[in-house]
Design a protein that fits this description.
Number of domains: 4
Strand content: 5-15%
Helix content: 55-70%
Radius of gyration: 37 Å
Distance between the termini: 68 Å
Largest sheet: 5 strands, parallel
CATH class of the largest domain: Alpha Beta
Structural class: alpha/beta
CATH topology of the largest domain: Alpha-Beta Plaits
Number of strands: 10
Shape: elongated
Low-confidence stretches: 127-131, 395-401
Length: 510
């Protein structure tokens, strides 16, 4: 129990604290005040179980303080301290609902008896008034998240109010909604309630678990758990046909005391939805005995998507990404941990090549977030969403690419991209545009912030990277394709830019 002590004599306050510590180590003094005004604010903030207050105090006396609390609707238990001459005050205290008052000096046995009386009152009120403990949903949610301990008081309340003994077997079903938790929770809840109307003999409680982005359904009062599981599977899989993409887990709990541990065990295995698909209910502990096939990484698909990225083939990239997803959906059962590791390897290969050749902007990548999303995924759709995040970076990057406003510079850039492989120069482009090289060079630098020679060299180097990674062409062929007639000079420029010779770079990224 938690106490606030309001007493203007420090010696008496300290004596009360010592008594409380001797009587029960679980007693906690959460506040001390030397007058009623100070005590009023402290009690409103700390919300103790019991107030111990003197009557006569400066500024605001104990009875006035209790009266204000009573008017505010605060129904905290109080022990009032008084002298023989203050019995009339004690009578007034009784009118404010105070049933325990002690004469000074305080006797230990009388103090203990007063606390015992209050404890019994609190126990009776908890059983009689469910709002003091909470609703069934609040109690079960508290047990699951660990904020409520299933003690004798709560066990008695559940038995008397809901006919739920603490050793009652229950079924716990977890509906994992992930990112759809907030928008879908009410819809899923209504569908579950409509389904359970077919079984009026079964009692249930539905709880939202926001931290795990899941909806929990607790069933009790059933006769045969095997028949119930079959019925539930049929009903829930029919819901699947309506395209409600949620992961579903199922377990039986032998008593309410084990609800928290059993839920944590079930939730740990919810990522088996990745391996089995959302057309299967994850039943714990059956899932622990499942046999899996070795998960072999699809190197061929990785090599093909590298070629597509280097070729700036967005349709090809999307196709390879879909092939990668489908690779794990061809009937074999793989351990979800191994599947996630494959996704990390594959998507990191995509990210590395795409940033290397300038296909996506590395600064826009949140690699730690991507890793967390993959390893924390519970469903196949979540893994697909991570891949889509990476693909969208390219589209967004194109949309946000610096706009070239000067028409002449825009035409020059288009000519560079069209004729870079022929070794086109500033003079040749200026001649095509019918302007002087000096004018073109000046406008180019003003618009793009770099000079013409740097821009065309950088563009050729990006194309060289793409060809080194995405093709089997020989080095002299690549040099020619990006506008260099001398392959040795091409190699020198490449090393100056990237710190590796072209052959070394190709070996590194294959």
């Amino acid at each position: 129990m938690r106490f606030v002590i309001v007493e203007d004599e420090i010696r008496i306050r300290e004596g009360i604290i010592k008594l409380l510590n001797k009587m029960n180590q679980e007693y906690e003094v959460v506040g001390e005040a030397e007058n009623g005004e100070e005590g009023l604010g402290m009690i409103r903030d700390a919300k103790p179980d019991i107030i111990i207050t003197d009557i006569k105090m400066p500024v605001l006396d104990g009875l006035e303080m209790l009266k204000k609390l009573h008017e505010d609707g605060y129904k905290c238990k109080a022990i009032v301290l008084s002298a023989y001459s203050e019995f009339e005050y004690a009578r007034q205290a009784m009118q404010l609902g105070v049933t325990e008052y002690l004469l000074k000096p305080i006797a230990l046995n009388e103090f203990a008896q007063a606390l015992e009386h209050i404890q019994k009152q609190l126990d009776r009120e908890h059983i009689q008034k469910p709002e003091q403990i909470g609703t069934l949903e609040q109690i079960l949610e508290g047990i699951i998240n660990g904020s409520i301990i299933l003690n004798e008081e709560i066990s008695t309340f559940l038995k008397n109010k809901y006919q739920i003994p603490k050793d009652l077997q229950v079924v716990l079903t977890c509906f994992y909604l992930g990112a759809e938790y907030a928008p879908m929770i009410e819809t899923i809840k209504r569908k579950i309630e409509a389904m359970l109307k077919q079984k009026p003999e079964i009692s249930y409680c539905i709880i939202g678990e926001a931290h795990d982005r899941s909806l929990l359904m607790i069933l009790y009062g059933y006769e045969d758990v095997t028949l119930l599981e079959r019925w539930m599977q049929y009903q829930l899989l029919n819901e699947k046909s309506k395209k409600i993409h949620v992961g579903i887990g199922w377990t039986q709990v032998s008593s309410l005391q084990e609800l928290k541990d059993q839920y944590e065990s079930l939730y740990q295995y919810m990522d088996w939805n990745i391996a089995l698909g959302d057309e299967v209910i994850i039943s714990y502990p059956k899932i622990t005995k499942i046999q899996t096939a070795p998960c072999i990484y699809p190197v061929k698909i990785e090599n093909q998507i590298k070629v597509d990225i280097c070729g700036n083939d967005y349709a090809g990239i999307v196709k390879r990404m879909e092939e990668f997803h489908e690779y794990f959906e061809l009937g074999k059962v793989y351990a979800p941990k191994e599947m996630k590791e494959c996704y990390v390897r594959f998507l990191w290969a995509v990210i590395n090549i795409a940033t290397e050749v300038g296909y996506i902007n590395e600064q826009k990548l949140e690699q730690q977030k991507i890793l967390e999303l993959i390893m924390g995924a519970k469903t196949r759709s979540e893994l697909r969403q991570v891949a889509e995040m990476i693909l969208k970076l390219r589209i967004e990057d194109q949309e946000e690419e610096k706009e070239i406003t000067h028409l002449t510079v825009k035409r020059a850039v288009n000519l560079i991209q069209e004729f870079y492989s022929s070794g086109i120069t500033l003079d040749e482009i200026a001649e095509k545009l019918n302007i002087t090289p000096e004018y073109l060079g000046t406008k180019f630098h003003q618009e793009l912030g770099i000079n013409f020679s740097t821009y065309i060299k950088n563009y050729r180097m990006i194309k060289a990277k793409e060809l080194l990674i995405g093709t089997q062409l020989k080095l002299y062929e690549i040099a020619e394709k990006v506008g260099y007639t001398d392959s040795k000079y091409f190699s020198k420029v490449f090393k100056d830019n990237f710190g590796q010779l072209p052959a070394e770079y190709r070996k590194t990224h294959k």
